[in-house]
Amino acid sequence: MGYSSFVAIALLMSVVVVCNGGKTSTYVRNLIEKPVDMPLDSDAFAIPPGYNAPQQVHITQGDLVGQAMIISWVTVDEPGSNQVIYWSDSSLQNFTAEGEVFTYTYYNYTSGFIHHTTITNLEFDTTYYYEVGIGNTTRQFWFITPPEVGLDVPYTFGIIGDLGQTFDSNTTLTHYQNSNGTALLYVGDLSYADDYPYHDNVRWDTWGRFTERSAAYQPWIWTAGNHEIDFDLQIGETQPFKPFSTRYHTPYEASQSTEPFYYSIKRGPAHVIVLATYSAFGYSTLQYKWLTAELPKVNRSETSWLIVLMHAPWYNSSNNHYMEGEPMRVIYESLFLKYKVDVVFAGHVHAYERSERVSNNKYNITNGICTPVEDITAPIYITNGDGGNLEGLATMKQPQPSYSAYRKASFGHGIFAIKNRTHAHYSWNRNQDGYAVEADKLWLFNRYWNPLNDSTIHIP
Ligand SMILES: [Fe+2]
């Protein structure tokens, strides 16, 4: 055999080896340029003018079904009013709700006045306007409530994770704002303030101002990531999740949860369960007990789609955080199969990855059966840890494993568009040279109403 033939065969073999899994996007991102945080005086962090003007305005669902909203904002000159004045576009009547104000200290930082006010008894599928900063500088925003919970109600969620506050984060958020997502499933790791000396909490404030342009107008559904823990013994900060849980509230009590980091909501056609990677999750824990009580309550004749959010992914073929999700998967995966979870969104890994429908549920530590297998009863696992934070992109293990359908270490966001009880369309929209490019897309079939094989690549 000549040298050229040998090289050709070797190349062919290497291609065969590398391609034994799914698809790796051919787009080559410039990996040399590490993302950089936007400077403190960036327009994206602009402080609204006026005495005691509300800033960092954000909203999240405030009850189980979408008829309440938690309105949150920060004032810096004085506590000011906790009131929210709100009205619908179909009514001339104004309503007023009263909330609470919180502050915290973190090492040498003292927060502004963090307000949380829940407005209730909202009509479904209605535009509401709301005002905060009553008595000082008043600012007005608006949002649209979801349709009433129902089987065939179309509804479009966005998915962003690990956003941070770099120039790339700014691009991701702009692309998401240009989409038709009407509520955002946020899969954890928000500001990355803890990457700064003493977890500089000023970067929590800048993140709040940066994200206001979306989060004040549609609910962001919060999942806690490791960058929310903010536990640092060396500077005497021993209360985990202090900045996050003071700034970002969740409606956990509405689903009988006892901790703000795991809870569920219903929104239109979806039952969304948020799990807590960084809270205790073993068999004897409150989280496990809550989930095993929650799953039987999911009524697929009411909410046709079952979505789970968590931070650390279970199926991840990146070098970064490889197998970190394994302890939780071992305990919870059988429940996901039993209750026909449709899709699991995670973050943590700074890349995009979508699994085939696979499970690894047969393994019992002695039987040696520890490889994921094709399983059309299983959820599809999607990692959207690609928001664009300052830590940069993940690198991938080679070869791509068979359970991995599509992966790419590049920034972007996801769109999950539920059409009816049987079909939803998912797309991953990659940031590419200033544009959002729909790089990965597929139709998902509902595991309860339409449990056919929707894999894009068949696993032999
Ligand atoms: Fe993370």
Automatic annotation (TrEMBL):
It catalyses: a phosphate monoester + H2O = an alcohol + phosphate. Residues 156-352 form the Calcineurin-like phosphoesterase domain. Gene3D superfamilies: 3.60.21.10, Purple acid phosphatase-like, N-terminal (2.60.40.380). Pfam families: Metallophos, Metallophos_C, Pur_ac_phosph_N. Residues 54-145 form the Purple acid phosphatase N-terminal domain. Residues 378-434 form the Purple acid phosphatase C-terminal domain. Its EC number is 3.1.3.2. Its cofactor is Fe cation; Zn(2+). Residues 1-21 form the signal peptide. GO terms for molecular function: acid phosphatase activity; transition metal ion binding. The keyword Magnesium does not apply. Keywords: Glycoprotein, Hydrolase, Iron, Metal-binding, Signal, Zinc. InterPro entries: Calcineurin-like_PHP, Metallo-depent_PP-like, MPP_PAP, PAPs-like, PAPs_C, PAPs_N, Purple_acid_Pase-like_N. CDD domains: MPP_PAPs. Belongs to the metallophosphoesterase superfamily. Purple acid phosphatase family. PANTHER family: ACID PHOSPHATASE RELATED (PTHR22953), PURPLE ACID PHOSPHATASE 10 (PTHR22953:SF86). This is Purple acid phosphatase. The gene is AP1.
